[in-house]
Every structure is written in structure tokens, then in C-alpha cells.
Amino acid sequence: MRLVHSAPDLVELRGRDGIGAPLLVGSALLVPPTLAALVAATPMTHERMLVALALAAIATGLIRLGWPRLHQIRISPLERTVQVDRRPRVPLGADPLLHLVAAPAERAAGPQRYGAALEWRDGAPLLLLAADEPATVLRELAALRTVLPLRMSSGWGLPAQAPPWVDAVAKVGSGLPIARKSAPTERDARRRVTTTMVVGCVAVATLLAMEIRGRLSQGDMPSSISLVLPALGLLALTAITIAIGRTEHRLGLGSELVYERRLWTLPLARRTIPRSAIRHAYLVSPRGADPRHLVLDTSDGPIAFPCESDDGVRVTAELGSGGEG
């Protein structure tokens, strides 16, 4: 969910569901009939065509079933009401509160995201914002609170009083979690994705070898295009797998805070912030354990960097503010 409109008379937020397993399975099922149509050196038989069409139909149905659906939340600050999608408007009730929470993953088996929920005594928590980066949520919360001045309670591992963002302790709401406690961390998710892609590379290579061997045994020499296209796809998949598995984040602190994202020793991105511009620093994660980001309160607003736990602890200790608590 993201903030798309913020005015004294209306606050509007929009977002889509996460990518579910049916979409992933359907996409995978769509690959074999597509490859069969592309690399077939001879016309397909009726039986093979029927199988390919059946697979394509099943895959299309699964993709349609798992396609992320659009959701909309409309809040009227003047009337103090909230409307979710096309449901009737409901009053905000007594003492509503914004709460930093762990939001569901955007994709199946992915890491939890940073979220902000609206809580009140008579209703379950309503997820308003969700993003992969905590600074994005904090910036949009600041814009929302200019027209809807609600108290903000702590979360993500921030202390109970973390200026300028947190100013209250959560005492209302149903207490139901927004996301599963068992959801994987970013490192777990990256490991799972890498493992899945390695298995996929091996499977694609095996199927390609079996196809070539079967044609050669029948005296059918594969065309160049039928070999080059799958080979290029396999190489691209292998490169993506390596990039996901070997990307790391580094933080350094001197007169400037330096952030680098690297692929092995190759710098992919670099950013610096003057140390004098940093007012507070905190280590956060959606659940508050195993820090994932370093969040900085700076003269330009909130800024966040992905970090390894050891790097984050060292930098916050050197900055002498916030830290993990």
C-alpha cells in the first residue's frame, strides 16, 4: 500500500496483493509449451499440440487466479471515517493510533516488509502502508499525519520514544499481527530464491540435453536457433542467480557515512551522507529482530540503507545515538 493522495478532505492509499504461489506455478507451467513451440524443428503432432494447449490453459488460469488484486483505502479526516475498497464507510472510533508493523511479503516466500497500520479500539488493525524500505513508509506517514494528526506507536525495533517519528506506546487495537511471525528474513528469502534458481538452471539444462539427445537418436539435427535461444536463457538465469547470491551491503563511517552495494568486489551503488547531517540513527527490521536496515533521521528527512547486522551495530555505536534500542 502506498500513499497516492493527501489533502485535508481526503487521504487515499492504493496497493496490490502480494505475488502468490498460483502466479508463480502458472508462469512456470507456461514455459514448456512456449519452448516447445519455439524450438520445434518439425510440425507438432496433434497429441503434442493438445498437451501444449492444455498446459497453456491451466497456466493461464493459475496466473489469473494469483494475479495481485488492487486495493484502495479512503480516509476522510474531516468526517473521521475510513472506507476499504467498496465497503461501507466506518467511523475511526475513539483514540485511533498509527502503529509501525511487519507487513506481509510482496511475493511468495519473500521477506516481510515495513508497514504502518491504523488501529482503534473497535476494529482490527488496518494496514495502510507497506514498502521494502523503512524510510519510504516514514516519509509517507509524515505526509499523512499533516492532514490526519494521529499518534504514532513504536515498532520495527525502534525505542518507545524515537524522535521525530514515534511519540506513543501502543495500547489500543486487537493486537493481531499484520504478518506471520514465521515469515523469512531477507537473508533466508535470498537463500531460498538462489536455491530455487539453481534447481531451475539444472532442470532447464537437463531438459535441453534430453531434447537434443532425443533428436540426435532419431537422426534429426537440431537447428542453430533451437540451441542458441535456450542456451542464452540458461546463461541469463545463471547470471541472475550469481548476482542474487553474491550481492552484499557495506557501511563505513568517517567524516561521512558511506554506503556501498557490491557484487563480490565490484561496486554497484554508492552514496554518502555528511556525518554532521545525521541527528539520530536506529537499526530496524520489520519484526524488530535481526536488523535489516539502518534508518537515519537527517536534515533531509528519513534515509535508510540495507546493512549487515555487524556493520549496523558498529556504525550506530560510532554515531552514539539510537542503536538497537
Describe the 3D structure.
The chain is of the alpha+beta class and 325 residues long. The chain folds into four domains: 2-18 and 69-153, PH-domain like, CATH 2.30.29; 21-66; 186-246; 247-319. The chain has six helices and 15 strands. The strands form four sheets. A five-stranded antiparallel beta sheet has the order 1-2-3-4-5, covered by helices on one side. Strands 8-7-6-9 form a four-stranded mixed beta sheet. Strands 10-11-12 form a three-stranded antiparallel beta sheet. α1 packs antiparallel against α2 and α4 (186-217) runs antiparallel to α5 (224-246). The radius of gyration is 25 Å and the shape is flat.
Q: Concise description?
A:
The protein is an alpha+beta fold and 325 residues long. It is 37% helix and 30% strand. The longest helix has 32 residues, at 186-217.
